[in-house]
Amino acid sequence: MVSPVTRAATRALLLVVGLLAGLACGGTSSQATSTGLSSSDTPATAAVTASGRLPADFLGLVSEHAFAAGPADRAKILGDQRRTGVQLLRQTFDWSTIEKTRGVYDFSIYDGFVHATARARIRLLPIIFRAPAFRSRTAKPSRTRKITATTTFPPRSNADMARFAARLVRRYGPRGTFWKENPDLPPLPIRSWQVWNEPNLPAYWGGRPNAKQYVSMLRTVGSAIRKADRKAEIVSGGIPESRQGIPLRTYLTQMRRAGGLKTFTTLAIHPYARNDAGVITAVSSTRRLLNGWGYRRMPIWVTELGWASQGPRSAFTAGPTRQGRYILHAITGLGQRAKQLNVRGVVYYGWKDAEPYPGGKDFWGLHTGLLRQDGTGKPALSKYYQAAGVLKRVRFR
User: Which residues pair with 101 in a beta bridge?
Assistant: First the structure.
């Protein structure tokens, strides 16, 4: 079980909330927990609502610690996150842990998580990801295909994944059986679904990314989701700019040639950059690319960004002070440009630092948390809260 946020962290969080309450423009904990969306809301597939505000799930977070915690610890973590300004959690819905036996779906683990997030009035963006071994493709390493013990393969059959996705929608969507079985919960059905993760990287596409294959997945799985919920928002897998895989512009061009830009609602990208200005530049560049192709109305969702406060040297290791400053300026900068750039939302990675990998291997991505491993808050925690307060005040005409 993941260690809970400590009492010291809670005191620190409450202190931050008190110090920044004026900046948050009325964002007290009681108000923050009373703004959940109702089941009648359709997914926000545009950057700005009819009233000129940002979507109520604009600001998100990745938090594996909340998912892995026991019920009591999870409730506490989610409460802390909600008070920090988190409106949405992006969470892998691991196909391999739900369908452990062919044709048998066990939703019990995810039922508990959806129950807890609904109680905390936090929306979810599921990542439909990782096929069971008996439904996954396999391949042998070669000169052009790098495969490791952690390489994730796409499914052998997209139709199998489509059936799984439809089951998820029928369980957690607007007419889902989960909500009928839990009428006491605030009704927060899942309306947005992300199909796979970083498909342009070898690590997540069997060692050899293939945009045409991914488009085929999007077309089949997205169609099944829409059949179960015709107003569902289909979100592409988050595409990073990485030298380890196919560059973002190249991959999107390949998707476009395969007819892929018509298979989803919202484009997700992971614009990791050296600083906040680099994030804004990356999103702006992607916006210009889409506009040039005639997709001006397609929203962009930043479903990952982050900086490390410590750890191994890298382009994304910023130190604790700059980490906080970059978080504040990137989130508020994207929020204030949401109409101009058609930004659907921003998800920060992540809530709490993680331990090194087995064997002691460290990685900058293990140090991007708002909290340290011991549960104490970094400067980033208060900056995220401050950014949430700024977003509440953003208005567009």
Answer: 104
Q: Is 195 left (phi over 0), alpha (psi -120 to 50) or beta?
A: beta
| Distance from C-alpha of 327 to C-alpha of 381, rounded to nearest angstrom | 9
pTM of the model: 0.88
Helix, coil or strand: residue 252? helix
| Residue 19: count of CB within 10 angstroms of its CB | 12
Per DSSP, 312 falls in state S
pLDDT tens for each residue of 116-168? 999 999 999 999 999 999 999 998 777 778 788 889 999 999 999 999 999 99
User: Three-state SS for 100?
Assistant: coil
Q: Nearest 5°: CA angle at 39, between 36 and 40?
A: 115
Element (H, E) at 269: strand 267-270
Query: Length of the chain in residues, anyone?
Result: 397
Q: Which strands make up the sheet holding 239-240, listed edge to edge? A: 233-236, 192-195, 123-129, 88-94, 59-62, 343-349, 300-302, 267-270, 239-240
Q: 200 and 240 in contact (C-beta within 8 Å)? A: yes
